[in-house]
Design a protein that fits this description.
The structure holds two protein chains of two kinds. Chain A contains no helices and eleven strands. Chain A is mostly beta strands. In chain B, the strands form two sheets. In chain B, strands 2, 4, 5, 6, 9, 10 and 11 form a seven-stranded mixed β-sheet that branches. A four-stranded antiparallel β-sheet of chain B has the order 1-3-8-7, with no helix packed on it. The chains are: A mainly beta, B mainly beta. Chains A and B meet through strand 4 and strand 5 of A and strand 5, strand 9 and strand 10 of B.
């Protein structure tokens, strides 16, 4: 069993839809949780960064962490074609998420006109 | 802020060639940088942690003599793939963080193709 599980997709939604992306994990020591967006042939871009359980909102993006269920989510509201990319969850045990990151395999998202 | 630049973005070379990839933090100093490898449709795998002024820490299974890392300044780390072979073809990505309490920011990666 992988430490972090993420459905690879692809996930196809119409423009304007609400998108839900999820990851589950097995290591209860993870405390810092991140979502990165990766366009084709580019490096990952940090979208959201959260510590422990709870919600965090930034514009159209909302990150949720449920440590009791070992489950994290990223919601994208009013999805746009420019949101089409691969979304990677990442998590770490150490302070600030700056230590060794464990990534999910990424979910490929396509937002269609 | 927190911009990481990686160069070159694309390398195509013959088998046996050594290839150097640079990773720079443009607007912050980074005592620690990270090097990852990513195969198509797979996630990022950490290869090594680069520490300014000291030896890099390599992950299990990564050959330190094959992948030479130098972190000579607070804004520059280099990865040299020595005597590269076709199986070394991959997407190499670096990351850096402004301090220990900040998340990692990634460069745009280097696509390496060995013929």
């Amino acid at each position: 069993q992988k430490e972090v599980e993420q459905d690879p997709g692809p996930l196809s939604v119409p423009e304007g839809a609400i998108v839900s992306l999820n990851c589950t994990y097995s290591n209860s020591a993870f405390q810092y949780f991140m979502w990165y967006r990766q366009y084709s042939r580019k490096g990952p871009e940090l979208l959201m960064y959260t510590y422990s359980s709870g919600n965090k909102e930034d514009g159209r993006f909302t990150a949720q962490v449920d440590k009791s269920s070992k489950y994290i989510s990223l919601f994208i509201r009013d999805s746009q074609p420019s949101d089409s990319a691969t979304y990677l969850c990442a998590m770490s045990e150490g302070a600030g998420g700056g230590n060794k990151l464990t990534f999910g395999t990424g979910t490929q998202l396509k937002v269609e006109l | 802020g927190a911009v990481v630049s990686q160069h070159p973005s694309r390398v195509i070379c013959k088998s046996g060639t050594s290839v150097k990839i640079e990773c720079r933090s443009l607007d912050f100093q980074a005592t620690t940088m990270f090097w990852y490898r990513q195969f198509p449709k797979q996630s990022l795998m950490l290869m090594a942690t680069s520490n300014e002024g000291s030896k890099a820490t390599y992950e299990q299974g990564v050959e330190k003599d094959k992948f030479l890392i130098n972190h000579a300044s607070l804004t520059l780390s280099t990865l040299t793939v020595t005597s590269a072979h076709p199986e070394d073809s991959s997407f190499y990505i670096c990351s850096a963080r402004p301090d220990n309490n900040q998340p990692q920011h990634f460069g745009d990666g280097t696509r390496l193709s060995i013929l």
